[in-house]
Amino acid sequence: MAETNLLVADSWLVKQGRVRALKLHRKRFLSSCSQLAGFQEKEIAPFWEAVLERIPQTGCWFPRIEMAGSLRQPAFQLRLRKAPPIHETIRLSDCKIADFRKTPRHKGPDLTKMLEIRKKIRETGADEGILTTPKGFLLEGLTTTLIWWEGKTLCTVSPSHRVLPGVTAQLIQSLAEKEHIRVACRLRKPQDLNGCEVWAVNALHGIRQAINWKHAPFKTSFHTDIGHWRKALDCFLEKI
């Protein structure tokens, strides 16, 4: 399928017909379609149901649903992709460019350019680029949400900033609250995370532990039972 003007997109990992928090992905996709193009849920529901019917019940898949074309006459489409290898660690690098995104709270309009930048970053030996504010404060990864630990507090960037509402991050925060772990939104620069345990999370890989951060005085820390958190995320798995 050829690339088209991408307006809204969402994707999730499917393993043997099961997905984590599929309802949240649906909600995010419908919300963006409504806010950007004025669609009502009932207008998109037939497309959503058709997508679910096409996803195989066996194997590992990473489908992407899209609203593409023009806002006046958008088209809905599915890219049925096999899942790439899943990793447990990640190497980060500052993008060192101004935040170029036009709609950071919606997945889609900026995605093509973000993936192009990530490709260049991978050529330098890192896996993911980190976006920051003009004053150097952390926002998020090109395709991930940043989560880190300050002592026993689980920290992330405030949703009031220019960040995407990440589904996996929401699930992790929900798990933390159930276990009575303090969750806080913090304004931090990359160097402030030196010595902290840092996670980059998304729907494909779940939780990846940062083991290196280029251009930052970053010393890794591994003090949590990350296996517990990865297993806990599985409680959100549901059958398609």
Automatic annotation (TrEMBL):
InterPro entries: Aminotrans_IV (IPR001544), Aminotransferase-like (IPR036038), BCAT-like_C (IPR043132). Gene3D superfamilies: D-amino Acid Aminotransferase, subunit A, domain 2 (3.20.10.10). It holds the Pfam family Aminotran_4. GO terms for molecular function: catalytic activity. This is Aminotransferase class IV. It comes from Oxalobacter paraformigenes. The lineage of its organism: Bacteria, Pseudomonadati, Pseudomonadota, Betaproteobacteria, Burkholderiales.
